[in-house]
Amino acid sequence: MTTSDRRLFPASFSVAPMVDWTDRHCRYFHRLLSKRAILYTEMLAAPAVLRGDRARLLDFNTEEHPVVVQLGGSDPGEMAETAAICAEWGYDAININVGCPSDRVQKGRFGAVLMKEPQTVAACAEAMGRAVGAGGRDVPITVKCRIGVDEVDSEEYLAHFIETVAASGVKTFVIHARKALLRGLSPRENRTVPPLDHERVHRMKARFPQLEIIINGGLASIGDCKAQLEHVDGVMVGRAAYQTPWLLAQVDEGLFGQPSPVKSRVEAVERFIPYVERRLAEGVPLNAMTKHILGLFHGVPGARAFRRVLSEEAPKNPTDIGILHKALDHVRTVKADSVAAE
């Protein structure tokens, strides 16, 4: 077997990789809310890792574990070299992006367009597994894909894609339950316009019981996740986890029967402040960190004032931690603020 034989994380909950969103500051904050969530980096193009500032692209906080790096590329040699670097960097798994529909990604010949080239994906995965194994690391190579792309969207084709890639040693597939339309829809529209087909993903799990199948797309609550876990091994939540991050504080107890690491939204921000102060001392702008908590108080009295202070004043005062304290003052008096209250 060319890639790690172990499953990623049984009965898992993941936060989807999202460009411009799931950076290291976001992931640190998300980890404060959930010990069980699997966190992903933004998608990184393999050539950028090989020729760019690796520390800037790959560094992460130890507290983020378990954390998965997502790579984009189609050249087996480049992907193998990049995977070896990421394994040495300490990531818990390495994911191949076969789902992003953006024009820029298509021009680089990776993302959703690769659903039309299962042999290429398999070649990349096999080369990556060999490179990681040669370094003595037990790091799984996984794939995130769609249920189809353009006119290549039959259920049989999806099964063929999975079977072909699994033959290279991949054990874990994260499947976005929408097809991708590479012509005529923007990346944003591709997240909502193509209809969801969760049942097709369920049938893939039934068809490939030996594989770990994680479902993504349209999940916005713990209830949604529980329902899906009746059929698949794991769930991945994207926009809902980012835009309303308090959802993550319900994951440990709601899905795994374990206590939440934070009791309230205010506590979550207070625990985030020391991290923000350390990064400010390193020159990281305040708004680069506070942008990730704008939706934390969604639906709570004072939320609008909290967001306004951070969105308007943090960019103008990028070194002033007092802005965060000022924003927090608008929601400190909220009483129904516990995990249980949700």
Protein model, in words:
This protein is an alpha/beta fold and 342 residues long. The chain has two domains: 12-252, Aldolase class I (TIM Barrel), CATH 3.20.20; 265-329, Four Helix Bundle (Hemerythrin (Met), subunit A). The protein is built from 16 helices and eight strands. The chain has helices at 24-33, 46-51, 54-58, 76-89, 103-107, 118-134, 155-166, 187-190, 198-207, 222-228, 239-243, 251-256, 265-281, 286-290, 303-313, 322-329; strands at residues 12-15, 39-45, 67-72, 93-98, 141-146, 172-176, 212-216, 234-237. It has an eight-stranded parallel sheet with strand order 1-8-7-6-5-4-3-2. α4 links the parallel β3 (67-72) and β4. α4 (76-89) packs across α6 (118-134). The radius of gyration is 20 Å and the shape is globular. It starts with 11 loop residues before the first strand and ends in a 13-residue tail after the last helix.
Summarize the model shown.
By secondary structure, the protein is α/β, with parallel strands linked by helices.
Topology summary:
Blueprint lengths: L11 E4 L8 H10 L5 E7 H6 L2 H5 L8 E6 L3 H14 L3 E6 L4 H5 L10 H17 L6 E6 L8 H12 L5 E5 L10 H4 L7 H10 L4 E5 L5 H7 L5 E4 L1 H5 L7 H6 L8 H17 L4 H5 L12 H11 L8 H8 L13
Parallel strand pairs: 1-8, 2-3, 3-4, 4-5, 5-6, 6-7, 7-8
Helix pairs in contact: 1-13, 4-6, 6-7, 15-16
- Based on CA inertia axes, which overall geometry fits? globular
DSSP helix fraction? 40-55%
CATH topology value of the largest domain: TIM Barrel
Helix- and strand-based class? alpha/beta
CATH class of the largest domain: Alpha Beta
Output the CATH homologous superfamily of the largest domain.
Answer: Aldolase class I
Domains, number:
2
| Number of contiguous helices | 16
| SSE topology string | EHEHHEHEHHEHEHHEHEHHHHHH
> Radius of gyration over alpha carbons?
20 Å
The fraction of residues in strands falls at 5-15%
Largest sheet: 8 strands, parallel
Overall mean pLDDT stands at: 92
Assigned CATH architecture of the largest domain: Alpha-Beta Barrel
Low-confidence stretches are none
Number of strands: 8
